[in-house]
Design a protein that fits this description.
The complex is a heterodimer of chains A (399) and B (135). Chain A is an alpha/beta fold and 399 residues long. In chain A, 34% of the residues lie in helices and 18% in strands. Classes of the chains: A alpha/beta (399), B mainly beta (135). At the A-B interface, α4 and β5 of A face β4, β6, β7, β8 and β10 of B.
Amino acid sequence: MSNNVWVIGTSMTRFGRFPEKDLMDLAVEATTGALKDADLDLAAVNILAMGNLYEATSHNGQRLQQAMGQTGIPVYNVVNACATGATAIRVAVMSILAGESDIGLAVGVEQMGKMGMLGGGKKRDEKKIFAPKGRRGGVVKAEGLFGTNLMPGVFAQAGTEYALTHGVTQTQFARVAHKNHLHSTLNPLAQYQKEFSMEEILGAEVISWPNTLPMCCPTGDGAAAVLLCSDAKLATLDPDVRRRAVKVSASVLTSDPYVDGGQVQADINTLTRNAADQAYAKAGIGPEDLSLVELHDCFATAELLHYDNLRLCEPGAAGQFIDSGAPYRDGRIPVNVSGGLLSKGHPLGATGVANVFEIVTHLRGEAGARQIEGAKVGLAHVIGLASACGVHILEKRAS
Amino acid sequence: MAVQIPAVDYLVLGDQPHLQAWRCVACSAAYFDRRNACARCFATSFSRSPLATEGVITAFTRVERGAKQPFTSVVVDLGEGVTVKANLRGMDDPAQIKPETKVRLYTFVAGVDDEGTEAVAFAFEPVGHSEVVGA
């Protein structure tokens, strides 16, 4: 058994739209980068966890091996909504902690193109006879008739629920998008690197109020990979690999527990709070110790709630927290200095690995123009409906 | 008169249309959909329970993109641990929705099938809606 797990290699592709590539091109690019980063080859890896949503029945871990090297190791293909990438990391971490593996590879990859997140699809031209279907006995399409359950609407309603309770304004939600788009201008791996003024954000097309277009993440393509190892293995590796190793101080996955009302409006808060509290306890670290946070800003409203859920602000004070400038890159707790999902992009399966890549890169002091100076501890958070939440706390290795 | 059926089985039609929930016999947790066991306490017995027709908005959005017509979606707290999601009429500007906004249920024909059967759905409107927005 290993007491600790270490990140020894990581890489991500630029996020964007790459119709000339296929899913494996993206996964191979990220995997090759992570192996090179750790100065290892595939023969050293003894577990592969592969995260992907939209081609999840295609055995992508095996396809990745077929594309770049088949070694016969166990492959775990995982799907867990937008927490898929974090789940892949968690699988590799558990295997190392259990002593079954000493080097694990976690990969997240997605190719979405210009697919929207609004669902839909054409109706077939057939005779219409009402007949109750499903566990609610519905006879007509529910979306738009009984409110909205599409992602933009769900996260908008999560935001207004917080706003009605704590007095947050649309302007405060918009400031999240202002911050993340500003941050993205320093990240060459981001899908978009464009600053928006508050006037542009508030004046843009409303998607699902209070979120306007720049307050919603884009869909896209991309991959990220993380190479992990045990204490014992780390001791055998090249001194330069050891020097750059980053400690996984907590790796936590939660699902949504029962709450009243959770059946009609997904509760994105309780499982995030549970994951954060478990992670802080496990790492022996509090939110005040964090140098930076990468959290799941699929919509601007979501980021504001997670300030509270991750205990970055006082309870109910997320609006004041963004107003204070605390989560800007020069603030007290920089949040989403990568540009976040809003501008870095959100290829679903890759996201949970990419935010660990971002934290690790800062802890190593290798983030270039967007480097948070002196970063020692970082937290990576993702949440997917309905519902899974992953939180990883990472620490710079004591020198 | 055309045959009418509820668009979902938790809507009860008649002189006083209302919603009903499956209540866990052991812990009173309420569900609109059929469950094999209670998600809170794992008990397996449920009974149907009528719900209030008025409540308070706890969350909302105005869907502008991806819909045939923009609409307002609300989560309504009906009391006794039950919330429901539905459309809201009479408040097209989401900035109008304040804490403790009271709404009431109404029903309407949402569609007709090829045999003339009408599906009746429900939505909410602000209490005092006709006075607020006029005819």
